[in-house]
Amino acid sequence: MESLKEISGIKPLDQLLAGHNPEAIDLLSSMLIVDPEKRITVTEALAHPFLAEFHDPEDEPTTSKLHPYDFDFETYDLTAEQLKDLLYDEIMLYHNEQLLENYI
Q1: CA–CA distances in Å: residue 35 to residues 38, 56, 84
Q2: What's the average model confidence in pLDDT over 20-32?
Q3: Is the pTM of this model over 0.90?
Q4: Residue 30, pLDDT score
């Protein structure tokens, strides 16, 4: 029986990016995990061997976790049309000074 990957044509990153830096592929794979409990954290990513030459724990600002309220938009049950309208409104805030001033 064929696997889902075989049926869908999805290739593993190491095959898709053959010939590229294996450490880069490992970091990218770790960052693309959907489950946040299994995905690499920012701190872990900064300590990853691929970023070793840039990693300086003394010069890497940190912050506290975001409040769950910041993601309450994910609980909205929006139609595609409502989502399009909200996206359009958000885009217009950055392209229309008057709208931005009214928003602020």
Answers
A1: 5, 27, 26
A2: 93
A3: no
A4: 94
